[in-house]
Amino acid sequence: MDLKIAARMIAVLAIGAALTATLMAFSQRQGPEETPVFRSLDPGGEPARTELLRCRDLGAEALKDKTCLKAWMESRRRFLKRPESDRPAAPAIDVDGTAKP
User: Fold this and answer.
1) Is the distance from CB of 68 to CB of 62 less than 8 angstroms?
2) Are 93 and 100 in contact, with CB atoms under 8 Å apart?
3) What are the pLDDT digits (tens) for 35-44?
4) Hey, how many other C-beta atoms are within 10 angstroms of the C-beta on 70?
5) Rounded Cα distance, 73 and 70, in Å
6) Could you give the C-alpha distances from 92 to 21, 53, 83, 101, in angstroms and in order?
7) Is 80 exposed, middle or buried (CB count within 10 Å of its CB: 0-12, 13-18, 19+)?
8) pTM for the predicted model, two decimal places
9) 53 with 39: CB under 8 angstroms?
10) I need a surface site. Which of 8, 31, 50, 73 has the fewest CB within 10 A?
11) Distances from the Cα of 12 to the Cαs of 21, 25, 29, 96, in angstroms?
C-alpha cells in the first residue's frame, strides 16, 4: 500500500473520530440540571411566606435554625388544619355529666 493512501486514511479516521467526539460532547448536558426557581413577587407582603422563602434559601443549614423549624411547624399546622364543616359535632352532655342520647 502506498504511504500517501495510508496517511489519507489515517487522517480521515482521525477527523471522523474528532467529529464524533465533538457531537457527543454537545449532545450531553453539562453541569447540574436547571430547576425552576419560584420566587414570591412580593416577598415583603406576608411574613410567614417570607420566612419560608428565607429557610428554603438556607438549604441544609435551615435544619439547625429554630425560626425555620417554627415556620415549618406553623405551615404544616395551617396546611393540615381541617375546615370547621368537617369537624364532628361535640357530644351533648347533661348537667350531671352524662351524654345525651
Assistant:
1) yes
2) yes
3) 555 555 555 5
4) 12
5) 5
6) 79, 45, 21, 8
7) exposed
8) 0.40
9) yes
10) 31
11) 14, 20, 28, 102
Buried-state track 11-26, b at ≥16 Cβ within 10 A, e below 16? eeeeeeeeeeeeeeee
Q: Work out whether the CA dihedral 74, 76, 78, 81 comes out positive or negative.
A: negative
**CB atoms near residue 54 (< 10 Å):** 15
Cβ atoms of 72 and 55 within 8 Å: the answer is yes
| C-alpha grid cell, residue 45 | 407582603
| Residues sharing a CB contact under 8 Å with residue 80, sequence separation 6 or more, in sequence order | none
The tens digit of pLDDT for each residue in 58-97 reads 888 888 989 999 999 988 888 888 776 666 666 666 666 5
